[in-house]
Amino acid sequence: QVQLVESGGGLVQAGGSLRLSCAASGSFARLSTMGWYRQAPGNERELVAAITPGGSSNYRDSVKGRFIISRDNDKSTVFLQMNSLKAEDTAVYYCNVGYIALLTRQYREVWGQGTLVTVSS
Fold it and tell me: Where are any strands of DSSP class E within the chain?
């Protein structure tokens, strides 16, 4: 099984920056796509950004040019650098990691516990 530990959320003023981290640990054959989702009160969870093992990334339109997703494959960690933050970025941010299970070689996904990002206007 894989466990995720997220860090980096907090309170920031509009225009500021935060960096989220999500470290994967446990037993797995290899990691697949790693991503960040967010969920604001009353809204559905939405994809913010994702990155493949090779480094290809995609972003939702509202964060393009402001957020940067990256990963350190040696440390099994994914990052989300959030710049020029806006009030509408306020949400709980969740890490999502796909992996190949060590014993069954089946594809699995795991979610982090979530970290709150609050942007004050």
Answer: 2-7, 10-13, 18-26, 30-39, 46-51, 57-59, 67-72, 77-82, 91-100, 107-111, 115-120
What is the per-residue pLDDT across 25-75, written as a single tens digit (0 to 9) for each? 999 999 999 999 999 999 999 999 999 999 999 999 999 999 999 999 999
**β 77-82/91-100 pair status:** unpaired
Q: Which amino acid is at 9?
A: G
**Residue 40: phi, psi to the nearest 5?**
-90, 155
Pairing type for strands 30-39 and 91-100 reads antiparallel
Residue 75, SS3?
A: helix
